[in-house]
Amino acid sequence: MSFAALRSEWTGARLNFNPGTFGTPAARVRTAVRAFQTETDGWPLAQYERGRVAVRSARQALGELWPHAGLVVGAGTTSQVSAFVPAFVRACGRVRLLTTTEEHEGGLAGWLAHPEVEVVQVAPAEVIEVAARGGWDVVFVSEVAWTTGERIDTAALEAVVGEALLVVDAAQAVGPVCFVPRGDVGVASLHKWLAAPAGTGFGWLSPRARARLHGTRWAGHALDPEHELAEFEPAGGLDYAAWAGVGVALELYGGVGEAPAAARVRALGQRLAEGVAVALAPWRPRFATGATFTEAPTVSDGGAVVARFPREVDPYAFYRALDAAGLHAKCIKSPVHNQLRWGVPWWEDEARVDEALGMIRNHSELLGPRP
């Protein structure tokens, strides 16, 4: 499917350049969800039976996009990680976990909250070296950092973790970059860069993770009891209509192709970065590339445009005004972060990027005094 033909699936006026939080489902995805609801509302048995068919179809489509023997379906990344934490504690006893300083709270909070987990954080650039020293039960990393777009070489990390189980958070990697499922346990959201219905995701397990862990489903009947990894999938009453939409979302993405979609994200992102550099030059933004920030307008390793401002520039009022006007981004503020993140989805086009740049220029004075 050409990108020009694809645009007809997204007709809304909003410029959702924050697919790293929620993508915008295509018209065909929303139609599939409504059709499932119309057919099964008030018919509980059909919701389970039709839902099981939709889940199996989605799992098959995932396997065609990212072949792996241990695929499972699930909720979004945060919910999946939260379910896996007690499974690791049950298998390992006290867990010594190595992770990075750029992890998303949603992925890290479950580990931090458990009294049997000791968490040690290092910079992403150091995690491979530190993991290779050994002494860890679990190594947990985001393949693409949500804050900077920095990408960790999970193949290199996989080669050095030894007996530790490697857990990969791929929430920001699936969709905007070419991706291979690696590690012993992986989790990813489908509602971000793949624009599936909210609350959907998938994961994968290596043979040794399957041997050491005993599932994440502590109660209830398996969603798909015939699946060999049913104990790692959700149970009970779920929004099965969403899975009818997942199948369509994966069909649209697969019709474009992973590599063309990633190239599209980078090309549109570069156009945006160059325009942002000009429009906001008085406020001296620097752009993420690898583990550093540079004055040259660039797209981060993970495909998003991450613009960091001097500490005396507060981008929040600017961000909120753009959000109210219909241009949606991510504002990341912390003691070490002072930045905006824009991700241009693969279903957008140059005209929409230019429209976004016009809005950025029109609201730029809200960044306050020039530093």
Radius of gyration: 21 Å
Low-pLDDT runs of 5+ residues are none
Give me the strand/helix succession: HEHHEHEHEHEHEEEHHHEEEHEEEH
Q: Would you identify the CATH H-level superfamily of the largest domain? A: Type I PLP-dependent aspartate aminotransferase-like (Major domain)
The total tally of domains equals 2
Q: State mean pLDDT (0 to 100 scale).
A: 96
**Strand residue percentage:** 15-25%
* CATH topology-level name of the largest domain: Aspartate Aminotransferase, domain 2
Order of adjacent strands in the largest pleated sheet:
2-8-7-6-5-3-4
| The CATH class of the largest domain | Alpha Beta
Assign an overall shape: globular
Distance between the termini: 46 Å
Percent in helix: 25-40%
Number of strands: 14
Q: Count of helical segments?
A: 12
CATH architecture of the largest domain: 3-Layer(aba) Sandwich
Sheet/helix structural class: alpha/beta
Largest sheet: 7 strands, mixed
Task: Describe what this molecule looks like in 3D.
The protein is an alpha/beta fold and 371 residues long. The chain folds into 2 domains: 28-256, 3-Layer(aba) Sandwich (Aspartate Aminotransferase, domain 2), CATH 3.40.640.10; 257-364, Aspartate Aminotransferase, domain 1. Helix content is 40%, strand content 16%. The chain is built from 12 helices and 14 strands. The chain has helices at residues 3-6, 27-40, 44-65, 77-92, 105-113, 127-132, 154-160, 207-212, 240-256, 258-279, 316-325, 350-363, and strands at residues 15-16, 71-74, 95-100, 117-122, 138-142, 165-169, 185-189, 201-205, 286-289, 292-294, 305-308, 327-328, 330-333, 338-342. The strands form 3 sheets. Strands 2-8-7-6-5-3-4 form a 7-stranded mixed sheet, sandwiched between helices. Strand 13 (330-333) and strand 14 form a beta hairpin. Helix 3 packs parallel to helix 9, helix 4 (77-92) runs parallel beside helix 5 (105-113) and helix 10 (258-279) runs parallel beside helix 12. The radius of gyration is 21 Å and the shape is globular. 47% of the residues are buried. The model has no long low-confidence stretch (mean pLDDT 96).
